[in-house]
Structure to design on (309 residues):
């Protein structure tokens, strides 16, 4: 059932775009907010508006909110290629393969980590929303590597806090186009949804604080292999920051990578891999660390770019 909302625009939203204001007021994505506006379900002081119009503090806002989409349900079935790296009573660490999402989302019809675990008889914590129980962090569907899932409620609570408080070691390797200058550096730039609302993210003034550290492992003729650590864990963070430096991950066509180079190296997704994950074990308080070798597609691309140098 749709939900009619009427309120005065708060002072803190003065000058914001209408789609941004709706997103912040009602927890919508920018894309969903744009759909509500396009349907004519938003009026300010009695007139319909466009998504790029600006709001004025104190204006009377009327919105007909659509009913929330029903949460997708995990499909319990084994995921080919998803290996168990470690398991005990509290946690399970997997080596996530390409094309697997952490948990089901609206619009995703492919395999998920949660579905794969349930489909092979593993149990996960019941904390969290129904479609992502046990999930304490995520990797993009086409980013491979180490990922931990909570099995106990204690593990869920403590690991969620550890990720939130930046007490987790997250190390990635990325093959990026060209040669970053300097070879070692930090990208401190806020990230939010891209104004186009097409599923991308971007460096946006007023976005969520995001910090990425990188160091060049090896520079090849056409690309550089980087070691990357994160202070924050925003969606697509490494991909967005590397693109902002004009050195997108090889194969990452969504963020401006060269399709010719990707084809030459045989890469059909972003060259990005979670090589190491470390944290204090939620039951023992001892530091544990897990690693993951490059999958075949990334290793083959690395071999080709090295041979060309």
């Amino acid at each position: 059932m749709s939900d009619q909302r009427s309120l005065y625009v708060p002072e803190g939203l003065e000058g914001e775009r209408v789609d941004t204001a709706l997103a912040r007021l009602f927890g919508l994505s920018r894309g969903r907010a744009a759909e509500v506006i396009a349907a004519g379900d938003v009026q300010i002081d009695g007139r319909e508006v466009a998504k790029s119009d600006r709001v004025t503090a104190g204006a009377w806002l009327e919105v007909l909110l659509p009913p929330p989409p029903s949460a997708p349900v995990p499909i319990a079935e084994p995921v080919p290629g998803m290996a168990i790296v470690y398991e005990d009573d509290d946690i399970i660490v997997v080596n996530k393969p390409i094309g697997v999402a952490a948990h089901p989302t609206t619009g995703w019809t492919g395999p998920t980590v949660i579905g794969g675990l349930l489909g092979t008889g593993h149990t996960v914590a019941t904390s969290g929303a129904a479609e992502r129980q046990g999930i304490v962090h995520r990797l993009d569907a086409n980013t491979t590597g180490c990922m931990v899932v909570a099995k106990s409620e204690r593990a869920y609570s403590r690991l969620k806090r550890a990720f939130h408080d930046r007490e987790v070691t997250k190390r990635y390797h990325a093959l990026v186009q060209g040669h970053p200058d300097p070879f070692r550096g930090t990208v401190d730039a806020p990230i939010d949804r891209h104004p186009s609302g097409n599923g991308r993210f971007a460096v946006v003034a007023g976005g969520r604080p995001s910090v990425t550290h990188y160091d060049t492992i090896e520079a090849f003729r056409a690309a550089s292999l980087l070691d990357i650590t994160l202070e924050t864990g925003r969606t697509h963070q490494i991909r967005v920051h590397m693109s902002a430096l004009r050195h997108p991950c090889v194969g990452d066509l969504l963020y401006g990578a060269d399709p010719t180079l990707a084809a030459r190296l045989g890469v059909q997704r972003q060259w990005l891999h979670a090589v190491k994950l470390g944290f204090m074990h939620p039951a023992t308080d001892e530091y544990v660390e897990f690693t993951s070798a490059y999958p075949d597609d990334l290793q083959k691309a690395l071999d080709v770019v090295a041979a060309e140098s």
Q: What stands out?
A: The longest strand covers residues 169-177. Residues 86 and 221 are 38 Å apart (CA to CA).
